[in-house]
Amino acid sequence: MIIKKHVSSLLIGALLATGGASVAHAGKSDDTLNVAIDRELESIDNYYNTAREGIIISRMVWDALLYRDPKTNEYLPNLATSYTWVDSKTLEFELRKGVKFHNGEKFDADDVVFTLNYVADPKNGAKPARNVNWWSSAEKLGEYKVRLNLKKEFPAALEFLSGPIVMYPNDYYGKVGPEGMAIKPVGTGPYAVTSVEPGKRYRFKKYDGHHSGSPKGKANIGNVVFRTIAESNTQLAELFSGGIDWIWKVKPDQAERIKSQGAFTVKNSSTMRIGYLNFDAMGRHSKNPMNDVRVRKAIAHAIDREGIVKNLVQGESIVVNSLCFPSQFGCTQDVPTYDYNPEKAKKLLAEAGYPNGFETPFLAYRNRDYAEAMINNLNAIGIKTKFEYLKYAAFRDKVQEGASPFNFGTWGSYSINDVSAITSHFQSGGKDDYSKDPEVIKQLGIGDTNVDPQVRKDAYKAALSRISEEVFMFPLWSYNTWYAFSKDVEFTPTADEIPRFFTAKWK
Amino acid sequence: MSLSNSANINRSGKLSSLIKKVKGHQGMIIGSVIVITVIAIALLAPLIAPHDPYHQDLMRRLVPPVWDSRGSWEHILGTDHLGRDYLSRLIYGARISLLIGIGAAVISGIIGTFMGVMAGYFGGRVDMVVTFLITVRLSMPVVLVALAVVAIVGGSLQVVVTVLGLLLWDRFAVVMRSSTLQIRSMDYVAAARAVGCSTSRVLIAEVMPNVVNNLIVITTIEIAHAIILEAALSFLGLGVQPPLPSWGLMVSEGKDMMLFEPWLIAIPGVALFMLVLAINLMGDGARDITAPENRN
Amino acid sequence: MLFYTLKRFGLASLVALTVSFISFGLLYLSSDPAIAMAGETASDADIEAIRKLYGFDRPILVQYFDWLQRAVGGDLGKSYYFRTDVSALIGERLPTTMMLGVSAITFAILFSVPLGVAAAIRPNSIIDRVALFLSVMGQALPSFWFALMLIVLLSVNLRLLPTSGSDTWLHFVMPTVVLGYYAAPAIMRLTRTGMLEVLSTDYIRTARAKGLRPVVVLFKHALRNAIIPVVSLAAVQFGFMLGGSIVVETIFALHGAGFLAWESITRNDLPTVQGLILVFSLFYIVLTFFADLLNAWLDPRIRIS
C-alpha cells in the first residue's frame, strides 16, 4: 500500500493507526450494526413512502407472498407456498401455516385479503399508485387460501407480489392504520422494529420467530440501527470514528481512496438505474431544434459516454444502448446504436440547418459533473446550453408540465425487473413523454398487457428499436453504488440496490 | 460649511495630509496592496491564466498541485473533478468574486443607508415604516427567497448579485439608523438646524460625515459577507451556476473530496480569506484615517 | 413605556403577517402544491382531484386567508411529506434549534465583546491584530469547512467529542462553536468601533478628567453607549443564525428546525415551510422587541424619539 504524502491522508492514517483497535469492535462488540442513510423517511409504513430506504426496511420488517431471489431472479414461495394462474386475470394462492407477526398475531387469509383490499382502494392513498392499482379485489377462499382478481392482464404481477406488496396484520392495521404503523410497525419479517424516531433514527432487533421456511432466512446480526445523516462527509467521519459501521452511495472518488487506505471493506455493485437524455421530439414544449431527428442523432453521436463512464461514473457501470437495464425482462441491446463521433454529429447538425450550432435550455437534477461533461461535449459541436440544475421535485414538475425541451434524468424502476417499469413509464404517452409516438405506444401497450413472454419480448424489442432509431430518448449509462463498511461485517450487495441486512453477518 | 471642523483647511493641504496618514497606516497598506493585486489579476486574467478555465480533461481529473509527489508543473495548482486547471479557474474566479462582493454591497449599501439615515434622522412615521421593512426583511429566510427567485427566473451571475443586493441591505439600515439616531441629538446638528441649514444640507454635511465610519465598517463587512454568502448559496445550488469559476463554487464543488484532497477547498478558501482580510484591513484603515477624532 | 410597547406589538403583528403572506406567495410561485401533495407517481386525474379537494384552484388571497384563519387558531395543517400535524412536527424539532441558537449567541457574545473591548483599549496592539485576524477568520471561513475540520480533529482523531447526533450536551459543543463563530466577527468589530469612538469623545474625556476610575469609565459610561448598535446587531445575528443553522444542523445531523426548513423547501412541503416561517418570524420579532427595550433602557435618548 502506497502511503500518499498529503495532510488528510496522514490525518486519516494516524486515526486508523491509533484508533484502529477501538474502531474495529464498535459494532460487533454489542452485536449492533449502525447504518447511515442520507435522507429523512416520510413514513416507515411500506405503503406510504417511496424512498429506497423504505424499500430496504420493508424487506427487513415485512414479507410478501413470494420473494424474488436476487441472484437467480426466480420467484420463491414466502408467505404463500404456491400459486396458480386460474386465468389470465385471476391468481390463487395457498398460504403458509404457522407464521406469526411480531406482535403475536397469527398470519392467515384475513391478513392478505385485508391488506390487498385496503391498499388498492384509492381513497387510502397508498403510494406509489402504480404498485397497487392493477388489481380490483382479493377474496378469502379458505383459512389459508386467497384469490386475487386483476383489473386487466398484468404480466408484472408476480414481480410486484414478490417484493413491494407486503402483508400487514389485519387486526392491528385495522385498528391503528398508517399513523399507527408509522410509529410502531408490525410485520412477519426477519427484523422487528423496536423504536421509531421519525426521520431521525430507527432501531431493529432480530425476530427469532421468523418462519423457518422463509427464503430470506433468519437474521444473523442481532441489532440494526438506521441513522439519518444527510452530509456525506459526516457519514465518512462517523465511519472513520467508529460511530457508524456501514454506509453506501459513497461517491466514486471517495470510495477509491477509502479502498486504497485499506481500513474498510469497499464494494461496488451495479444498479438498475439508468441515465437518459429526453428530447422534445414532438414539439410539446415548442418549435425547437430537438423536434428534428437529425439534431437528436447528432447529440447522440456527440456524447462521449464511454469516456464519462470510465472517468466519472466508474465502478460497475456500463454504457446502455436501449432505454432499459439489461437484466430487466424485455430489455434487449439489439437496437440501433450511436458511437461517439463528433465529426458525424457536426455534419448532421449542418444537414438539419444548424451549421453553427444553436442554444438550448438543458435541465438536470443530479450528477452535476456528468451534466457538465455532457455540456462540454455539446459545446464541442457548437451547441450552447442554458443549464438549469433543480432539486428533484422541481425538475419533475417542470418536465411533467411540458416545460423542458431537453433534460438529463435517471430512473431506477423501483427495482422492478421488468421493462414495463421504465420504458412504458416514459414512452406510453404519459406526463414524461415528449414524443408520444403512436407506434411505440402501441407496442408498449402490447408488451404491458400480454402474459405470453415471447409476445412481450417481441413487442418490447419493436418499441425499443423504434425509440433508438428516432432517438426519442437517448439512453446513457447504468448507475452503480459504492458500499463501505467495517471489516467485521460480511455483506454482499445485490444488483437490485436493496441491501439485505438479514443476510449480513459478523466475521 | 461644516460646524464640526474647527478650522478652515484648504483642499490641497487636506489631500496631502490624507496621503501622509495612509502611508503611515500599515494595515491599510497591506490591505490595499492585496486588493489591488486581486483586481489586477482579475483584469489581466486572459493574459496570465495558463489554461482555459473551462477546458475539461476527463483523463486528468483531481491531479494534485505541484508540491505533491503526484503533481506536475503543467498544472501548478492541480486540476478539479472535471480535469480543469485549478490555477486558471482561480484567476478567473477573482473576477466573479469581486463582481459579486462589490456589486451586492453597492446595491445593498445604497438601499440600506438611505433607509437607515432617513429613519434615524426623521424618526416618527418614517422610522416606523423603515423599521417595519427591516423587520420584515430580517424575518424572511434568505434561502427561501433565493430558492423562489431561482425557480422563477433561473440562476445566473446577475440574478445572484441582485438577490444578494436586495437581501443584504438590512445591516446597513440597522446600523445607519442607530448611528444617525445618536448623531441627531448631538449639539452640532442642533446648531446647524438652528442656524437654518436645510434638511438635505444637514444630512449631507453634518450627519453623513459622522456616520461614515460605521458605514465603512459595515460596507467592508458586507462585501465580505456577500462573497461568503455566494459560497453558501453555491453550496445549496442557488448561487452562480457551473461552469463559472467562482471561488465559492470551487469550494462547494471540492467539498466531497475534502477529507481526501483538502487542497481542492483549501486553495479557493485561502484566496477568499486573503481577499476578505484585505478588504477588512482597508476598511479599518479608512475608518481610522477618517475618524472624527483624527480630524482637526 | 406602555404606549411604546403596544406600538411595537402592533408593528410586530403586521410584520408577521407580511412575512407569512410573502413567503406563501413565493412558495406558490415556485411550485405547484397539488403536485407536491399528490406525490411522484400520481396521474393527472389524481392531481386534479387533489386540487379540487384541497381548494388549490382558489385565488391565492383566499387560500392565504384560509391558512391564516386556521393558523391563528393553532392549526398549522398537515405536512405534505410526513402526513403528521405541522405543529407537532415543529414542536418536536424546534427545541434542538433553540438550544443551539441560544448557546451559539451566548458563545458569540462571551467571545466577541471582551475581545472587542480589549482591542479598543489598545488599538493597533497585538490584541487588536489578533482580534482582527480572528474576526476575519470567522467571516471568511465557510462554516461547513470549519464544522468538518472540527469533527475530524476533535472527534475522529482525538476522540474527545461525538461526531454527530443530538443525544447529549456533548453533541452540542462543536455545533455551538461553529454557529457562534459565524456571528462573532460582526459583534466584535462593532463593539470595538463603538468603544473606540466613545472612548475618545468629550463625554469620556470629561469623566476621566473628573478622576473617575478607568474601570468605572469603561463599563458604566463607555460600554453602555457603545453597546447600543451592538445589541441591535446581536438580535439580527440571532435571526441570521436561525438561517445559518441549516448548514450546522445538516452537518452535525441535529435534525432541528433549520434542517427541517431546508428539506421541506426542497420537498415542496408548503404547510411545513409556512409553519416554520411563521414561528421563526414570531421569534425574531420578540427578539428585536426585547433588544429595542434593552436599548431604550440603556439610552433614554432613544426612548424619547
Computed structural class of chain A: alpha+beta
Report the order of strands and helices of chain C. HHHHHHHHHHHHH
- How would the global form of chain A be characterised? globular
Backbone structural class of chain C = mainly alpha
Mean pLDDT of chain C: 80
User: Any idea what the radius of gyration of chain C is?
Assistant: 23 Å
Strand content of chain C: under 5%
Average pLDDT rating of chain A: 90
Oligomeric state of the chains present here = heterotrimer
Percent of residues of chain A in beta strands? 15-25%
Q: Strand order of the main beta sheet of chain A, please?
A: 11-16-12-15-13-14
Shape of chain C: globular
**Radius of gyration of chain A, taken over Cα atoms and rounded to an integer in Å:** 24 Å
Helix content of chain C: over 70%
Account of the 3D structure:
The complex is a heterotrimer of chains A (507), B (296) and C (305). Chain A is an alpha+beta fold. Chain A has 18 helices and 18 strands. Chain A has helices at 7-18, 20-24, 26-29, 52-61, 109-120, 129-132, 157-161, 170-183, 232-241, 252-261, 293-302, 305-313, 342-351, 368-380, 392-400, 423-427, 438-449, 453-470; strands at residues 32-37, 66-68, 75-77, 80-87, 90-95, 135-142, 145-150, 191-197, 201-206, 223-228, 246-248, 265-279, 358-364, 383-389, 406-411, 473-485, 489-490, 505-506. Chain A has a six-stranded mixed β-sheet, sandwiched between helices. In chain A, strands 1-10-9-8 form a four-stranded mixed β-sheet. In chain A, strands 4-5-7-6 form a four-stranded antiparallel β-sheet, covered by helices on one side. The longest helix of chain A is centred in the C-terminal third of the chain and has 18 residues, at 453-470. Chain A starts with 6 loop residues before the first helix and ends with a strand. The model of chain A is unreliable at 1-10 and 13-25 (pLDDT under 50). Chain B is mainly α. Chain B has one domain: Orthogonal Bundle (MetI-like fold), CATH 1.10.3720. Chain B is 71% helix and 0% strand. Chain B has helices spanning 11-24, 26-48, 86-122, 124-139, 142-153, 157-167, 169-184, 187-195, 199-235, 247-254, 263-290. In chain B, helix 2 (26-48) crosses helix 3 and helix 3 (86-122) runs antiparallel to helix 9. The longest helix of chain B is centred in the middle third of the chain and has 37 residues, at 86-122. Chain B starts with 10 loop residues before the first helix and ends in a 6-residue tail after the last helix. Chain C is built from 13 helices and no strands. Chain C has helices at residues 2-30, 33-38, 44-53, 60-72, 86-121, 126-140, 143-157, 173-199, 202-209, 214-251, 257-266, 270-298, 300-304. Chain C is an all-alpha fold. The two termini of chain C are 12 Å apart. The chains are: A alpha+beta (507), B mainly alpha (296), C mainly alpha (305). At the B-C interface, helix 4, helix 5, helix 7, helix 9 and helix 11 of B face helix 1, helix 6, helix 7, helix 8 and helix 10 of C.
